[in-house]
Amino acid sequence: MNVSEALIREIVTKVLEESAGKGSKPEFEKHIDPSGIIGIKTSTVKCEPFQQDGVKLKDVVTLEEAPRMGCGIMELDHTSFEWTLTYDEYDLVLDGTLEIEIDGRVVSGGPGDIIYIPKGSHIHFQTPNRTRYAYFVYPADWQ
């Protein structure tokens, strides 16, 4: 029996996509290429409540998919919360205004802006409006 490379790629892609969604319909649009490249449609990601009112997030890659770097979407709605980072983080603002308060100073970013927060920083994430941003963390297991 002759099995083509295209057929093997199709089978591997289907298995990876099903395992990412655990056999059910994915919660958002994500494509996992057999090479390991992952494409995510951030506009389809629905965030879930996280620790306090006005704060929602959704990790969009698993440790199996990306064992070294983590990624997710976070939404803040007219809120502030304190956090100490045990990892390095980049935040890419998608909508709204993200403010990072540290030592009485505020670093602010709007749509398209990137904010880097080094490991060990004790900060307040805050927003004067409804804000949505993508976070990228290293190492991946940020919790």
UniProtKB/TrEMBL annotation:
Any coiled-coil regions, as ranges: none
CDD domains: cupin_EutQ (cd02228)
Superkingdom to which the source organism belongs: Bacteria
Signal peptide: none
InterPro entries according to UniProt: EutQ (IPR010424), RmlC-like_jellyroll (IPR014710), RmlC_Cupin_sf (IPR011051)
This protein's name: Ethanolamine utilization protein EutQ
Organism: Flavonifractor plautii 1_3_50AFAA
